[in-house]
Amino acid sequence: MSTASINTGLRPLLVASSAPRIDVYHGQLFIEGEWRAASSGGRIERRSPAHGTLVSTYAAAAPEDVHAAIDAAHHAFRKGPWPKLKGAERARVLLAIAEGIRENVDRLALVESLESGKPLTQARAEVSGCIDLWQYAASLARTTSGDTYDTLGEDMLGLVLRQPVGVVGLITPWNFPLWILSQKLPFALAAGCTCIVKPSELTSGTTLMLMDIVKAAGVPAGVVNVVTGLGAPVGQPLAESPLVDMLSFTGSTRVGSMLAGLASSKLKKVSLELGGKNPQIVFPDCDWDAMIDAVVFGVYFNAGECCNSGSRVLVHESIAERFADAVVERAKAVPVGDPLHPDAKVGAIVSEQQMRDILAHIEHGVAAGAQVRVGGARYEGASGTYLQPTVLTGVTPEMSAARDEIFGPVLSVIPFRDAQHAIEIANDTAYGLSAAVWSRDIDTCLKVARGVDAGTIWVNTFLDGYPELPFGGFKASGVGRELGKQAVEDYTETKTIQLHIGERNSRWVPLKQ
């Protein structure tokens, strides 16, 4: 596919004024409160996808290292003080971690930007946002409670307790390393659980750096452990170990399904936050400028490497051409380039493999009849993995471009006839993570919000989020919820206590006289 005429008008790639000075971070495993090398001595190197330079190295854990971390977490849960602490005491520790993050925002953000390829300004905002997640989790440590039933008769009192589920394996992805960890770890700790964290081998830096903060805040040894390395040697033991009571995973639907199968064979509790093919549904009476800006933000934020990416827009057929023209012009204005450049809004794709996967999706769309209106290719001559912001038109609901998660800066535009037709198209995928509706008519908005199968519906906005509101998906987008009061509840089990009061006079077998 030739891009010479298609790409006319794209902004040139932003280039930083000087090469970055990178202090390579060398990470170890964090087990039972101490740093240690992998048993094999193996290491993993991570190079910046934007610059090609070495950013960090990590210990490559083997299964025996994972089992050591599991044993540490199991011992800390069964014998250690953490599950037995008052909620107020756990809350104080979580608040201390939040302050530790605040004191290290710039350091954490730089490593996250260099490892992931995302703009430094974005990484700094995300790291700062994690502070709020830890503070909110601290509030839940003090307020999570069970129920009482005083309606069972004068001789019975019912108590329903919430107790920590036990040892939790947390597997996090590469696209929002510290943010997604902060959607899991503080809530598990607030419940009284102990944890083993497996970050992506592409972006392990901020997870390991957080452990210095965790230790300084007073988290007891063994309560939080981190094992770095490749997926199978680390993730599979977490899913299969009988000492791990729960598995929480964020990542692709394919890997999540496999891990869920392994975990279910051990009857392990599972929480999964998986993929999405999230629609923004646009009606003619919307706030036009706000909608266009939100659409471009929704698909190009984090280079589209986001489970919540608004990667398909369903637009009413009466405004489809006007919309396509407007979104193409706005896409051309998106500043793409070096993550360390202060004006960059979109950085590098996380890896060469991810770049090839995205380009393959675009090629499949074109082969099926879609048209590339802008973008569709790499930035030629760039030293890093930079992809042009892309808009596909002529997309129909049965095409893979309308149904499959692309996980890149690629927008598919699909026309619809009326609200019911839009709902049918929106629901015609395997996913159900999030959606948005744009209209000034509240009846239209509510009809769509109620009709679309998704865990989050935005009305006249997109990609807003708050710690108080639960997040998760329907169908192949996952199981369970993160954030909100439900987040801590997910890391608990309920226990029923039936307390008899006074003499128990009834007898199943009468006593002999």
UniProtKB/TrEMBL annotation:
Claim: Chaperone is one of the keywords in the record: no
InterPro entries reported for this sequence: Ald_DH/histidinol_DH (IPR016161), Ald_DH_C (IPR016163), Ald_DH_CS_GLU (IPR029510), Ald_DH_N (IPR016162), Aldehyde_DH_dom (IPR015590)
Tagged with keyword Zinc-finger: no
Gene3D superfamilies: Aldehyde Dehydrogenase, Chain A, domain 1, Aldehyde Dehydrogenase, Chain A, domain 2
Sample GO molecular function, one term: oxidoreductase activity, acting on the aldehyde or oxo group of donors, NAD or NADP as acceptor
Transmembrane segments: none
Record keywords, A-Z: Oxidoreductase
Positions of the catalytic residues: 273
Domain Aldehyde dehydrogenase: 35-497
Superkingdom of the organism of origin: Bacteria
Pfam families according to UniProt: Aldedh
Protein family membership: Belongs to the aldehyde dehydrogenase family.
UniProt protein name: Aldehyde dehydrogenase family protein
